[in-house]
Specification:
The protein contains 6 helices and 7 strands, in the order βαβββαββαβααα. It is of the alpha/beta class. The protein has a 7-stranded mixed β-sheet with strand order 2-3-4-1-5-7-6, sandwiched between helices. It is globular, with a radius of gyration of 16 Å.
Length: about 200
Amino acid sequence: MEQAAPWLIVGLGNPGPQYAANRHNVGFFIADLLAERTGVKFGRHRKAVADVAEARLGFGVDAPRLVLVKPLTYMNLSGGPAAALSQFYKVPPAQIIAVHDELDIPYGQLRLKVGGGEGGHNGLRSMTKSLATKEYLRVRFGVGRPPGRQDPADFVLSDFSAVERKELEFLVDRAADAVEAIVRSGLAAAQLTYHTA
């Protein structure tokens, strides 16, 4: 019996301590939490410039397999590791979930979707180019627009504010729940619960 393909969950972010707490790295936060929940640790993958952790969502032979990914290429080249790992694990686009920050959504709100544009997000643009399709899933974590005249690029590369950090753990937890819900129940069911209008 052939084993079902795993889910490839790509948390988008930038490697290195100087970026670790940035808004742009919320995808890494969510990937880290999913690894923690499933009791696995990240390690460098031999076929891709990425930290990878393989897990199961639940117990038993039928529990869905997860491949959690944190690309180590910097955001604008994230697609290379995502494409290499999708080939290595034979994952179709319908089972690839990009988890990322989103400027066009108010802070802490989630939007779940498949396909669509990249909205100026360099990580998504790189994934679409490398995978040669837009038809992968996205869990979009709202970081809101920058205040005043701050450049959006500077805004996403800055840390969450003290006020935002009060709620951040809860919001990251909810985003990880949303990823699990997509894997367990499918996009439509997950949207009903976690997609904020």
